[in-house]
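Entry 0007
Protein: histidinol-phosphate transaminase
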Amino acid sequence: MLMLSNPNNPSSVAFEQQEIEKIIQDFDGLVVLDEAYIEFSDCPSFVSLVEKYDNLLILRTLSKAFGLAGLRLGFAIACERLIYELDKAIPPFSVSNVVAKIGAAALDDQEKVAVAIEQTKMSRQDFQAFLASLPDCQVLPSQTNFLTFTFKGAEQFYRRALTQGFHFKYYSKGILAGYIRMTTGRPEEMALLKELILESLHTD
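Output (structure tokens):
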């Protein structure tokens, strides 16, 4: 089994369709593609490929774009054969009736969700432009509801933000050492974060 996330977490970068298709074609086994952040992406979902490839299983969630993280509710999309086999492994009553009804109502309210997604994308683009204007700031191209970036005062900014009640990830080691992974928030929150970043730059 090969598991991939697209767009990727924590890099926030998305695959091209030809890259995904080559992986599916070349891999001798099940390819599980997690599309938890696909609603925020300008790239299309790979749902259309499930009938073409019988070794592709796509996972989706209502935790991100639908704002229902507390429900812990998601679903799988695949060809009929894979869904049949997957159904054998799912325990009975794994999702309560209440959770199922809330999830169904959320999926039916696509107009409201679309507005929230557009607001998130605008917030992301605005903050990404702000980061790009900073000296020596590196921002990964985001296709999600979060940004992954670094700059000279990144660690100082992270510690300042913690004192203001913000919680996000600072990587102290690994391939993303020195980078911050931060989910976009409300306009007033993003404005305060901009101020904290500028303060960190001036005191570095």
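Curator remark: The two ends are 46 Å apart (CA to CA). The chain is about 40% helix and 15% strand.
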